[in-house]
Amino acid sequence: xxxxxxxxxxxxxxxxxxxxxxxxxxxxxxxxxxxxxxxxxxxxxxxxxxxxxxxxxxxxxxxxxxxxxxxxxxxxxxxxxxxxxxxxxxxxxxxxxxxxxxxxxxxxxxxxxxxxxxxxxxxxxxxxxxxxxxxxxxxxxxxxxxxxxxxxxxxxxxxxxxxxxxxxxxxxxxxxxxxxxxxxxxxxxxxxxxxxxxxxxxxxxxxxxxxxxxxxxxxxxxxxxxxxxxxxxxxxxxxxxxxxxxxxxxxxxxxxxxxxxxxxxxxxxxxxxxxxxxxxxxxxxxxxxxxxxxxxxxxxxxxxxxxxxxxxxxxxxxxxxxxxxxxxxxxxxxxxxxxxxxxxxxxxxxxxxxxxxxxxxxxxxxxxxxxxxxxxxxxxxxxxxxxxxxxxxxxxxxxxxxxxxxxxxxxxxxxxxxxxxxxxxxxxxxxxxxxxxxxxxxxxxxxxxxxxxxxxxxxxxxxxxxxxxxxxxxxxxxxxxxxxxxxxxxxxxxxxxxxxxxxxxxxxxxxxxxxxxx
Length: 518
Hints:
This protein is an alpha/beta fold. It folds into 4 domains: 5-112, HprK N-terminal domain-like (Udp-n-acetylmuramoylalanyl-d-glutamate--2,6- Diaminopimelate Ligase, Chain: A, domain 1); 149-252, 2-Layer Sandwich (Beta-Lactamase), CATH 3.30.450; 273-319 and 341-422, UreE, C-terminal domain (Alpha-Beta Plaits), CATH 3.30.70.790; 426-515, Arc Repressor Mutant, subunit A (Orthogonal Bundle). It contains 19 helices and 15 strands. The chain has a 5-stranded mixed sheet, sandwiched between helices. Mean pLDDT is 83; it is low at 320-340.
């Protein structure tokens, strides 16, 4: 327990007695106690330092009130007055000033030297420090032993809850409470924002300490610890549990990456039509594949967010109870198999999700938000069209990425492939690699347009779209036909191509389509 005036009064050998105190002042903690008869000792005191004095610094009682005011400003919790040294009894002015500033006032009798009071505070401080170290060691040992049980993670968190005297919860990477007591709405929303931010952090909100678990690029969850304000000893225990939980979840993460490898192979098997093999394998893992007609989504996560997206989908697929190996009292685990209508797998830098249409509509907005990416979706798909549906959904994700560009706050990031304009074979060939190649090809034109404002790219798109007829392109652009011809000649010089030849025109049109410029 902290050192307070109440605990000092219990040391009867000191003979201390109160002059003025209320309940709050009696319970205010002391960090240390000093003795001083300086006219202004405040520069040498820290918040929480009590002060002993004999009053020799006061020329008269008029000096007392400003002296106490300066001590109150630096956070002195109590003043001890040594009686019978220079004054008989405690001055009334000192009592009045301490009452005015809510500073506890006590008398130190003549027979008790100030050094005895200071030594007692030192002994109590040492005893308190030893007790907190012992608490830390005992708690860490108990939690480590609990972690060795079959339900190790849940048992360790239960023991942490008992030791800190407040509710504990593990919030998974999907933002749901995996183990423990659901924290308040504000704390839970804050934890979800911490996961979405994708960086290590620790905050206290609504009396709940929230600390992320895992690497910044792959957060595994947030540990929420409630209870009264935590001291250094409690924080040390919580930090050790965060490290232990992080290690346990990292081991699970390695298993999850192995399962991701397996799912990628299973997706290839589904494309080849080996559905029964895939279904049998997934049943052994506690999962399954959705029924026809399918909804196929392709998510293109932001840089560095694919692993977090796979972790989120993996947590959903397993269900929180199986993630943690158990539940604390008050947990609300979901029924096993509740996610079996969803299959996911990585496909290069992207992630493919198969589900029924209703489930896709429920999941996709959250997945896109967490991954900070874009997505394309194709509905009412038969298994034999799976490969084509994945390509179409990927094309829609590309098109949406072109639309939102660098706007991280763009609200709409999901595009239904049915809404795409069908540009035939060229658009179907216009994947990410083709787009990058097209951008390189068009770069000299873009650079020229930026410097001159000639709009060569727009002119070429209109000219080729008008079957290379300058008059028709000029009508679309609102310029003279000679202007169109001059711009085409300038584009030929910049590209180093003869646009009078069909192969050059076809290549340029393909580049414009791939780059989304036509």
